[in-house]
Design goal:
Blueprint (H helix, E strand, L loop, with lengths): L7 E2 L5 E3 L2 E2 H8 L3 E5 H18 L3 E6 L6 H9 L3 E4 L2 H9 L7 E3 L6 H10 L3 E4 L2 H13 L4 E8 L22 E2 L4 H10 L4 E7 L10 H21 L5 E3 L17 H16 L8 E4 L3 H4 L3 E13 L3 E6 L8 H5 L5 E3 L9 E6 L8 E8 L7 E5 L19 E6 L2 E6 L4 H5 L16
Parallel strand pairs: 4-20, 5-6, 5-13, 6-7, 7-8, 8-9, 9-10, 9-11, 11-12, 12-13, 15-17
Antiparallel strand pairs: 1-2, 2-3, 4-14, 14-15, 14-19, 16-19, 17-18, 20-21
Helix pairs in contact: 2-9, 5-6, 8-9
The protein binds pyridoxal-5'-phosphate (PLP) and lysine.
Lysine (LYS) binds next to loops.
Pathway: Amino-acid biosynthesis; L-lysine biosynthesis via DAP pathway; L-lysine from DL-2,6-diaminopimelate: step 1/1
Family: Belongs to the Orn/Lys/Arg decarboxylase class-II family. LysA subfamily.
Keywords: Amino-acid biosynthesis, Decarboxylase, Lyase, Lysine biosynthesis, Pyridoxal phosphate
């Protein structure tokens, strides 16, 4: 397994992250456990901030909280000077409760409810990313009823087919549920309508082409299309885009075949394309906003499991089961995502067999890794799966009524619990048994 950030194998042959031995983390917090390397998260935040600062362009780096939304993470993003992208009332609530400044929050989503819009307006968030005509009307009406003015970006689909890790993670193509299409004229119409509306201030446009993308071409092509669009809007409507948000999507290394660029390389490709394509269109260079999620938290996360049972099918395969699975990491089942693993309590033992790591849910598809080389595992061993910081905790479920794991931040030999493990009581906290079917206590 590739060792990300502060991960290393210590003298005892144990995996250590942020100076914390995972066998001790298991003793203190149990498993499954999401372990987040705080130093690596901060490093990623700084890589973005520094690279943009070096570009000379105005910018905001908004952490896409959908990747991992918990209050402690909102605090880190705030401390590092990032803005925040939220996509629901729940993410917004989490951010506000964490004390994240509302003016640096951007609200996304293709179906914001009136409740969510009101909540965000009352909080005074910095910007709405408007996705469609229905939302444009609704937002204006609610803003007017509250006598407030709202900054907006229009989400556009630039018609770029991104090489995302799965079709479900590509969003820049015309046939997408998100945004106004540049190619068919709806984006132009949206600019026209929003410029004419009271209570709305159009800052510019937003384009997000997809996720887990390694090449820069898709982003550069998106910038070119958006710049062409900006030119037309300037010429025909005399409207200027002060802000261009290029979304997230920057890839990370999950397994050996993955070839991500450095954060600074993605940023310089984007800012270079902005300088190139926006030059000479008759407007000032826009401020550039981005929304990285995975590339901020993905490789900082490791999930620690305890090995339980195994099953060998002679000549076919050996299954090794762990105490978590698709409940805490649905990505292999959803996208066929690949991960690397390590026997975390005997990390220096030589690999002697190829096994497949199964979860404990009642689904054949509940597999975390097919075919990984490991030392011989036995019940009670610890298995670490790397690169689980993004879209694991945030996409976790209680399928099979399995409680969601705890999350700890580790740094400088210290571990801090940031999400408690769910209890049995948490699982039934919202259940109600109607009186008519409640168990009667029969007294004789
Ligand atoms: C609008 C938007 N912004 C930002 C992101 C974050 O993407 P990533 O985690 O790939 O950086 C996503 C998710 O793909 C998204 O849909
Ligand atoms: N959730 C996805 C990608 C989509 C991200 C949000 N648009 C993943 O786990 O890779």
């Amino acid at each position: 397994m590739y060792l990300h950030g502060t991960s290393r194998i210590n003298d005892a042959g144990h995996l250590e992250i942020g100076g914390c031995d995972v066998t001790e983390l298991k003793a203190e917090y149990g498993t499954p456990l999401y372990i987040m390397d705080e130093q690596l998260i901060r490093r990623r935040c700084r890589e973005y901030m520094d690279a943009f600062a070096a570009s000379g362009l105005g910018f905001q780096v908004a952490y896409a909280s959908k990747a991992f939304s918990v209050m402690a993470m909102c605090r880190l993003a705030d401390e590092e000077g990032l803005s925040l992208d939220v996509v629901s009332d729940g993410e917004l609530y989490t951010a506000l409760q964490a004390g994240f400044p509302a003016e640096r929050i951007h609200f996304h989503g293709n179906n914001k409810t009136p409740f969510e819009i009101e909540m965000a307006l009352d909080a005074g968030i910095g910007c709405f990313v408007v996705d469609n005509f229905v939302e444009l009307e609704l937002l204006q009406a609610i803003a007017a009823s509250k006598h407030v003015n709202v900054n907006i970006l229009l989400r556009v689909t630039p018609g770029v087919e991104a090489h995302a890790h799965h079709a479900y993670a590509a969003t820049g193509q015309t046939d997408s549920k998100f945004g106004f299409d540049i190619g068919n004229g709806t984006a132009f119409e949206a600019v026209k309508q929003s410029s004419a509306k009271d209570n709305l201030t159009l800052l510019g446009v937003h384009s997000h082409i997809g996720s887990q993308i390694f090449e820069t071409e898709g982003f550069e092509m998106a910038v070119e299309r958006v710049a062409d669009f900006a030119r037309r809007v300037k010429e025909e409507l005399n409207t200027e885009f002060r802000v261009v948000n290029l979304g997230g999507g920057f890839g990370i290394r999950y397994t050996e075949g993955d070839t991500p660029l450095q954060v600074s390389e993605y940023v310089s490709a984007i800012t270079g394309a902005v300088k190139k394509y926006f030059a000479g269109i008759g407007t000032k260079l826009p401020e550039i906003w981005v929304e990285p999620g995975r590339s901020i938290v993905g490789d900082a996360g490791t999930t620690l499991y305890t090995v339980g049972t195994n099953k060998t099918i002679p000549g076919v395969r050996k299954y090794v089961a762990v105490d978590g699975g698709m409940g805490d990491n649905p990505r292999p089942a959803l996208y066929e995502s690949k991960y690397e693993a390590l026997l975390a309590n005997r990390a220096n033992d030589p690999a002697v067999e190829t096994v497949s790591i199964a979860g404990k849910c009642c689904e054949s598809g509940d597999m975390l890794i097919w075919d990984v080389e490991l030392p011989e595992t036995k019940s009670g061993d610890l298995l670490a799966v790397a690169c689980t910081g993004a879209y694991n905790y945030s996409m976790a479920s209680n399928y099979n009524r399995i409680a969601r794991p705890a999350v700890v931040f580790v740094q400088n030999g210290q571990s801090d619990l940031v999400v408690k493990r769910e209890s049995h009581n948490d699982l039934i906290a919202n259940d109600i048994i109607p009186a008519r079917i409640a168990k009667q206590t029969v007294t004789k």
